[in-house]
Amino acid sequence: MADIVLDTLLKPLSEFFTPEFVEEIAINHEGEVWLRLHGARVPWVSYTSDKLTKDYLLNVIGTVANIYERPFDPIRGMPVVYATLPGNHRFSAIAGPNVMYDDRDVTGGVALNIRGTSAPDTSFETYHLQKGAPLLKVKPRNAAKPNDPYERLMTAINDGSPILISGATATGKTTFLNHILTLIDQNARVITVEDAREIQVKQKNRVHFVLSRTEQTNEFNYARLLDLVVRMTPDVIIGGEVSTDNAGVLWEMMGTGHDHFYTTIHAESAEAAYAAFADRILHTQPAYDRAELMEEMKKKMHVVQLSRDGALRAVTEVV
């Protein structure tokens, strides 16, 4: 009986996630669905549907939670629901004040992903693995660092390398990050993680997760946020200001294999930025060796240092 109820409820969505050519769907707000297509040059395409109202989406999440006996209370409890739907479709959703799309969601938004069917051809050849053939290098990092600071930064952006933007208060870190976003593919799926909405994302396929340091009332935390972010299939991840609360999770996000990870930190130099990031991780995860952690950071992450003198703002280091 539960399957019949769920199948009936999901009909406005199933027409999008059940075709074989669809890898998954993502909904960031009411009325619009994004389809990630198998093997497409532009993987994400969007469709509008007046059936996908906010009330309908909340009803879907609540019903899935009820049928699969998952807790769901966006305000005082757990705002996230995971389940495996009939047909082995993986369902991930969040609702409430921890998710936003734009100013319409100040009282709480809704976002969900549903994984579609597997690709029709799932042989080793699909993954370019053949006997006697070398493995492909997919998105190889540029090992050489150009001497020109501008070229170093642009190479890092084009490679999708992690970038930490460092500077004192009012040096323009968020503004600088907003400009980097204008250089990213407009078809990319962008997910931000902030304690208050500051980052301006022009890409339409986006989700903003908000985890306030002062207004948090439910059971959503950084550990749960990490799990949700990787399930939402981001092309770009933007972390908010690095703090003792989120440093460990932001560092783990950086290690999930996603390109284009950006975050900011208060520090007076690139070396101090690495040290501050490491120290904030150690605050909650003391098992790390500080020297080894900083060495790993320097291998994986670029730092752009911003400085200010009165009205003058400038990039003073790119490492």
What's the gist of this structure?
By secondary structure, the chain is of the alpha/beta class. The protein has helices spanning 2-17, 54-67, 149-159, 173-182, 222-231, 247-254, 270-284, 290-300, and strands at 22-27, 32-37, 44-48, 80-85, 89-96, 99-100, 109-115, 163-167, 190-194, 206-210, 236-241, 261-265, 302-309, 312-318.
SSE blueprint:
Elements: H1 2-17, E1 22-27, E2 32-37, E3 44-48, H2 54-67, E4 80-85, E5 89-96, E6 99-100, E7 109-115, H3 149-159, E8 163-167, H4 173-182, E9 190-194, E10 206-210, H5 222-231, E11 236-241, H6 247-254, E12 261-265, H7 270-284, H8 290-300, E13 302-309, E14 312-318
Parallel strand pairs: 8-12, 8-13, 9-10, 9-11, 11-12
Antiparallel strand pairs: 1-2, 1-7, 2-3, 4-5, 5-7, 6-10, 13-14
Q: Could you walk me through the main structural features you see in this protein, from its secondary elements to its overall organization?
A:
With 319 residues, the protein is α/β, with parallel strands linked by helices. The chain has helices at residues 2-17, 54-67, 149-159, 173-182, 222-231, 247-254, 270-284, 290-300; strands at residues 22-27, 32-37, 44-48, 80-85, 89-96, 99-100, 109-115, 163-167, 190-194, 206-210, 236-241, 261-265, 302-309, 312-318. The strands form two sheets. It has an eight-stranded mixed sheet, with helices on both faces. The protein has a six-stranded antiparallel sheet with strand order 3-2-1-7-5-4, with helices on both faces. α1 (2-17) packs across α2 and α6 crosses α7. The mean pLDDT is 91.
